[in-house]
C-alpha cells in the first residue's frame, strides 16, 4: 500500500478527476472532457508546483473532504469556499501543507459552482486515451468519487509557488457569451435570432458538465423536421424541441441532430462553469473570423 495517496472521506455532490481532457478523439465518439474551468485548474496546479496537465479534483457546490496518507501540499481554487485542515481554518487560493492523516475539508462554495483541488504530484489514476479525466457522458476515466475512494498521487514535480495568494476571477453576476451565428441559424426565424441575441436568458438548474441549459423565450424554427446527425463542437448552442438554447460543455456528445444556431467563443466557457442557476445569460453576436 503506497503512502502517496488520498483517501476520500466525503465525496460531496459530484467530485471528479479532471485534467486538460482528451482532444482529438471526436471521430471515435469520445468528447474532450477535462476541467470545465480550465484556468482555475491550471492555477491551482501552478500553486503546488505541478505541470499544467496534472490531474486535479473538480468539486461541485459542496466541496469534499480528503485525508492524505503522507504530508502533501494542496491548493484549492475555482469557486470560493471555506477550507480547513485538521479543523483549523486554512487559506483558499494559496499553497497549504496538509500533514499525513490530517483532514482537508473543502467546504460549500460561497459563490460559483465548481472548485478545484490540486495536490503536489497530481492525482495519478490510470490514464485512458492519454487523459485521466472523468467523462460523465461516455463513462471513460475514473468514476465520480465516492466515500472511501483511494486516489494514488504522483511524485512532486517542483516546489510550491512562493505566494500568499493570487487573484482569481469571481463567478459571473451576469454570464456574457460571445457567439458566432451558424452553422444552422437559417433553420430559425429572424425573430428567433433576434431573441437569442437581444433577450435575457437564465441558467437552468438542469445544467451539468454536458451542457449549460437555459430558461427564457423559446426560439422559433423556420424549418420543420430534423437534421441527420452531424458533428458537435465545444461551445455549440444547440436548440432542442422545447426551443431553449443549450450550450455544450466539456462532456458534450460528439454528434447530434438538433440544429446549432451559434457557437460560443472558447474563452467565455470557463465563466459558464461557475454560473449558478438563475444567473442571467446574454448571447452577444460577433463576426466570423
UniProtKB/TrEMBL annotation:
Domain named Carboxyltransferase: residues: 27-289
Record-level Gene Ontology MF annotations: ATP binding; hydrolase activity
Nuclease recorded as keyword: no
InterPro entries linked to this entry: CT_A_B (IPR003778), Cyclophilin-like_dom_sf (IPR029000), PxpC (IPR052708)
Record keywords: ATP-binding, Hydrolase, Nucleotide-binding
Keyword ATP-binding attributed: yes
Pfam families hit by this protein: CT_A_B
Protein name: Biotin-dependent carboxyltransferase family protein
Provenance organism: Streptomyces argyrophylli
Amino acid at each position: 500500500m503506497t503512502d502517496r495517496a488520498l483517501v476520500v472521506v466525503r465525496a460531496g455532490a459530484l467530485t471528479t478527476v479532471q485534467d486538460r481532457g482528451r482532444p482529438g478523439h471526436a471521430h471515435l465518439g469520445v468528447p474532450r472532457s477535462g476541467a470545465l474551468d480550465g484556468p482555475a485548474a491550471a492555477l491551482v496546479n501552478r500553486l503546488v508546483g505541478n505541470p499544467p496537465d496534472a490531474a486535479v479534483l473538480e468539486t461541485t457546490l459542496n466541496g469534499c473532504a480528503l485525508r492524505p496518507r503522507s504530508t502533501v501540499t494542496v491548493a484549492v481554487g475555482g469557486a470560493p469556499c471555506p477550507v480547513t485542515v485538521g479543523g483549523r481554518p486554512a487559506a483558499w487560493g494559496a499553497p497549504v501543507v496538509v500533514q499525513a492523516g490530517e483532514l482537508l475539508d473543502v467546504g460549500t462554495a460561497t459563490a460559483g459552482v465548481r472548485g478545484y483541488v490540486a495536490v503536489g504530484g497530481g492525482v495519478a489514476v490510470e490514464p485512458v486515451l492519454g487523459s485521466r479525466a472523468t467523462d460523465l457522458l461516455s463513462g471513460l476515466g475514473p468514476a465520480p468519487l465516492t466515500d472511501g475512494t483511494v486516489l494514488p498521487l504522483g511524485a512532486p514535480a517542483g516546489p510550491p509557488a512562493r505566494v500568499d495568494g493570487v487573484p482569481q476571477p469571481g463567478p459571473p453576476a451576469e454570464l456574457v457569451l460571445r457567439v458566432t451565428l451558424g452553422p444552422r441559424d437559417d433553420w430559425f426565424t429572424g425573430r428567433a435570432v433576434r431573441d437569442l441575441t437581444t433577450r435575457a436568458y437564465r441558467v437552468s438548474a438542469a445544467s451539468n458538465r454536458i451542457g449549460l441549459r437555459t430558461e427564457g423565450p423559446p426560439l422559433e424554427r423556420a424549418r420543420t423536421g430534423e437534421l441527420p446527425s452531424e458533428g458537435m463542437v465545444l461551445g455549440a448552442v444547440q436548440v432542442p424541441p422545447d426551443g431553449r438554447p443549450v450550450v455544450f460543455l466539456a462532456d458534450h456528445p460528439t454528434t447530434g441532430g438538433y440544429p446549432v444556431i451559434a457557437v460560443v467563443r472558447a474563452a467565455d466557457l470557463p465563466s459558464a462553469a461557475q454560473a449558478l442557476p438563475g444567473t442571467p445569460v446574454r448571447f452577444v453576436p460577433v463576426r466570423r473570423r
